[in-house]
Structures are given as C-alpha cells and as structure tokens.
UniProtKB/TrEMBL annotation:
Short name of one Pfam family: Methyltransf_4
GO molecular function, one term: tRNA (guanine(46)-N7)-methyltransferase activity
Gene name per UniProt: trmB
CDD domains: AdoMet_MTases
UniProt name for this protein: tRNA (guanine-N(7)-)-methyltransferase
Protein species of origin: Bradyrhizobium zhanjiangense
Enzyme class name: transferase
Length: 236
C-alpha cells in the first residue's frame, strides 16, 4: 500500500478535492440507481471532450449549465425541469447526494441532466473553452478553520478555470450562509480580471434571485438564524 501524501506533496488537482465519498448506507433502490442509471448519465472525462458541450446531451442542448456540489439535488432537479432546452451538468463526489439526484431524475423522467461523480477541477479542465452559460456553487463546505482555507473551492486557480469555460456574459452564482466565506469569495472574485460582481443594491445579494429553489440546507440555515448571501458574477 502506498503512503498517503501530505497536502504539500499533492499537486493542484489532488488538493482541489476534499469531499466525503460516502455517508449513510444506501437503500437497495438507491444502490440500484447507482449501479444501473448512473452509468447512462455519467460523463467520462477520460474520453475526448466534445467540441460543443451541448453535444453531451440527446437531443443536443442549446446551452449548458453546471452545478458544483449539488448536495441533495433539489436545486439542480428544479432547474432542469424549469429549463428543458438547457443541458445541466451536476458534479457531486458524495455518493449519497448522487443517489438522491438519481431518484429525482427517475421519478420525474428528467432527460437533460448529466452527472460527474468526482473532482470539479478535473471536470472544468475537461470541458471545452467558453462552453457554459452558468456555474452554480450553492452552500459549499466553508472549511471554516484557517488551516483548511486552501480546501475551499473558490481559489484563484478555480476562478481562472471557471473563466475559461464560461461564455462572455455567462455567470458564476454563489450562495453561502457563512459570512467569512462570502467575504473570501468577494475578495477573490474582485481581484480577477475576468469577472464583475452584478450587485447594484443590498437586496441584490440579500435576496435570492428570481426563480431560485431553496435547498434543504438553505432552509436549515434559515431556521438556525443564519442569513445567506446570493452573489452573482458575470464573465466579462
């Protein structure tokens, strides 16, 4: 067995992923979805990327959006049903979250979602340049301890990776109820020449954007008295 490498010994791709792979034991039906439905929807980034990301879908999608770390999949499933001509890619390394979105896809017969059960940084590197219209990051793990800040998804290198795959005018949308991570995200995006913060007044980030589907975690945060910020950044 090889020795586990320290953070300092890992390359950037390895450092970008720190998610848990599996939590509670899957129920029989959930395990069946992982075994039989997921292979039909999973992206194979070992293969050559299509020239147009819309070709990932059948029929081809007019535009493509990505949700990173979709958790229970409530937001992703709702968006896919509200925008049937748009293709949605959901990235989630947590197996239980993947089982939950598969159950929703099966129940509602959703045909415009494709899935990636791995590191979002690797997926971003695989996608064609200027291929996405939007990227959503909703209630990510804040890694609140200072020594863990390098594990946060929002970093200079991931911002550059998102800028590469977003079309001009495309958006990165970020939702978080942890003030420190919101400030972190604003400071990192502010120093990027590729993004512009779209807020013009306080309610632009204090209130969800039109049509937003509240997630289970978002409702839990509200019950516990934590107010989320809804940040939108446009690719210039």
């Amino acid at each position: 067995m090889s020795e586990r490498k320290s953070d300092s010994e890992r390359d950037d791709g390895e450092r970008a992923f720190f998610g848990r792979r599996k939590g509670h034991k899957l129920r029989q039906h959930q395990a069946g979805l992982i075994d039989h439905l997921l292979p039909h929807l999973a992206l194979d980034i070992a293969s050559e990327a299509p020239a147009n990301a819309g070709e990932i879908f059948d029929p081809a999608a007019s535009e493509v959006r990505l949700e990173i770390g979709f958790g229970g999949g409530e937001h992703l499933a709702a968006e896919a049903q509200n925008f049937p001509a748009t293709g949605f890619i959901g990235c989630e390394p947590y197996v239980n979250g993947m089982a939950k979105i598969l159950a929703q896809i099966e129940a509602a017969n959703i045909g415009n979602i494709r899935l990636f059960a791995g590191d979002a940084a690797e997926l971003l590197a695989w996608l064609p340049q200027a291929s996405l219209s939007r990227i959503d990051l909703i209630h990510p793990d804040p890694w609140p301890k200072r020594r863990h800040w390098k594990r946060r998804f929002v970093q200079d290198r991931t911002i550059a990776a998102m800028a590469r795959v977003l079309k001009p005018g495309g958006e990165f949308r970020f939702v978080c109820d942890i003030d420190d991570y919101c400030a972190w995200t604003l400071s990192h995006l502010a120093r990027s020449p590729d993004f512009e913060w779209l807020a013009e007044r306080a309610d632009d980030f204090r209130q969800p954007w039109a049509g937003y589907t509240m997630t289970r975690y978002g409702r839990k945060a509200a019950r516990e008295g934590r107010k989320a910020a809804y940040l939108r950044f446009q690719r210039v």
